[in-house]
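Worked example 2:
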Amino acid sequence: MLKKITIGRKDRVDFPDLRLEDIDAKVDTGAYTSAIHCDNIRLFQVDSEPWVRFTLFDDEHKVKHEAKVVVYKSIKNSFGQKEVRCVIKTKITLFKKNYTIELALTNRSTMKYPVLLGRKLLNDRFIVDVSKQNLSYRKKSKS
């Protein structure tokens, strides 16, 4: 068994494939799937496979992306309502290490954090200490 890394209740993460750096993320052990705030979610087909076009936001501008849809998931949102979301695979950087992550695309404009990190990413890798925050980000900035 690998040694688990302590992560706090929130951190700042990078998504190298999506060209996003130092994005605020909330660690949520109540959520199974991780999610990211995006807009203009549009489905289309490539060789009879589902793909999605979407717009992500960084501090300065909107960034358009396309990705293959891994799965559609029925997810209960923070208001208790079920909604179907597209899930893509991408890389996330935490503690100077890249992990492949399944990321649900959704509008989180009413939420404080644009990214939510769920149990599927956390399981068997991290221990959550809710009294701490930005542990990965601090390590990154010291180097």
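The chain has one domain: 5-138. The domain at 5-138 is CATH 2.40.70.10 (Cathepsin D, subunit A; domain 1).
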